[in-house]
Amino acid sequence: MGGIFSFPSVDIDSPSGDSLFCQSSSSKPSSTHVHGKGNGEQGSQSQHLCDVWRDLQGAHNWNGLLHPMDPILKSEVIRYGNLAKVCYDAFDGETTSKYYNTCKYSKRELLEKMGMSECGYRVTKYIYANTGVSGSLFGENSKGRAVWFGFIAVCDNAKEIKRLGRRDIVVAWRGTQTTQEWIQDLRDVLVPAKLSYQCQRTTKDHQALIPPVNDGVRIEKGFLNFYTSTIHEEEDCGGKRVTMSARVHVIAEIKRLLQVYKNEMDNLSISFTGHSLGAALAKLSAYDTKRILRANHFIDILVTVFSFASPRVGNLAFAKKVEETGLKVLRFVNKWDVVPEVPEFS
To answer: Fewer CB under 10 Å: which end of the chain, C or N?
Structure first.
């Protein structure tokens, strides 16, 4: 886990580009919030996670929690970081493997195999993306096919829900692993987002997304391709071959889970996490999710990104839109890591 969890600095994303830095690993916990061990362990604390979860998810922009880092917040960040790490450890990156580009484990056994059987979450959906590069030149062949990029899980353990103070839906993305993905990472030109948000009913049983107006939001081309490019996969629908995208996987599953837990909206959170490329995809998909929620009048659901070593995702208009939506982003970077400083958008 090394570099992901050393916490040398943290910043809250803002349109101005200002950063709030926190040397937390050697600092004492703030007495105004909690009294604990200060090392990410729960220990004996004057406040419990269930009482302050909204603050920890950024409802008040982590005011007073970063200088030094609140120990409960630190333990939560580590928890989400571990979920992001699962996406690396469970990915089958062996080019000679029959299951190359997929997850090594089924949804039912993933967290158990990764040593997280007691985390209280149940994996409900795998996320697949199209890496979009013809593979013969690079010894790989996955253009147009489903490549495993992460998972969606929901906290469904009563004891853990009580500890957290709410039901949490988590979306975890992995970072770059294959040659094709490195090539997409280098496509650092900005392109219009072309994401649609509002739903309109087109038939009795079908809703379509209304195309957005041109709001000036531009996204790094490679990241947007990962998120929106269609893939072909076999679904359990009579053997029919269907066309989907990572975006469809994420939005459809969140919509389904919100319907399942529609009576818990006051105590429900949606958390996105990822490392490097995964952090960029976490922010992009969280922004997309928050916009869709707002367009469909789910304004009060707290959507938060815990990102690790994220590169820049979009232009200034994108940063401003992120802030306008109410999306909360806590971004952790290592001081000497160049990835968070690229691409160099003007």
So the answer is: C
Domain ranges across the chain: 82-336
Write the CB contacts of 287 (distance below 8 Å, at least 6 apart in sequence). 318, 321, 322, 325, 327
Beta-bridged to residue 303, according to DSSP, are 270
- Phi, psi (deg, nearest 5) at residue 17: 85, 0
d(CA 12, CA 30): 19
Other CB atoms within 10 Å distance of the CB of residue 187 = 17
Q: CA 99, 103, 107, 108: dihedral to nearest 10 degrees?
A: 70
pLDDT tens track for 15-34: 333 333 332 222 222 222 33
Instruction: Compute the average pLDDT of residues 263-291.
Output: 96
CB distance 133 to 180 below 8 Å: yes
Which of 10, 62, 81, 120 has its CA nearest to residue 302? 62
- DSSP tag of 39: S
* CA pair distance 213, 194, nearest whole angstrom: 9
- Cβ(272)–Cβ(295) under 8 Å? no
Tell the CATH topology of 82-336: Rossmann fold (3.40.50)
Q: Tell me: the pLDDT tens digits for 88-134?
A: 999 998 889 988 889 999 999 999 999 999 999 999 999 998 876 44
Give every CB contact of residue 97 below 8 A, 6+ residues apart in sequence.
Answer: none
Q: How far is CA 182 from CA 26, 53, 146, 157, in A?
A: 35, 36, 17, 38
